[in-house]
Amino acid sequence: VGKALFDGQLLDVHFTRSFYKHILGVKVTYHDIEAIDPDFFKNLKWMLE
Asked: Quick one: which pathway (predicted)?
């Protein structure tokens, strides 16, 4: 990804919300997992409560 950006190449990719947040310096939370894997999020939320 970095090399493609450096070379000015367009990439036909879709990143997760947590990846974008990480790039922007925004804190990533376990709630961001919900968009990737709803079942895992549900189980994680159950364990944390």
From this structure: Protein modification; protein ubiquitination
Q: What is the identity of the amino acid at 10? A: L
The pTM (predicted TM-score) of the whole model is 0.60
What's the average pLDDT block by block, 10 residues per block, for the chain (49 residues)?
Answer: 91 90 92 90 91
Q: Which residues contact 25 (CB under 8 A, 6 or more apart)?
A: none
How far apart CA 45 and CA 20 sit, in angstroms, is 22
Which long-range CB contacts under 8 A does 5-10 form with residues at least 24 apart? none
Helices (H) and strands (E) in the chain, counts: 3, 0
3-state SS class at 1? coil
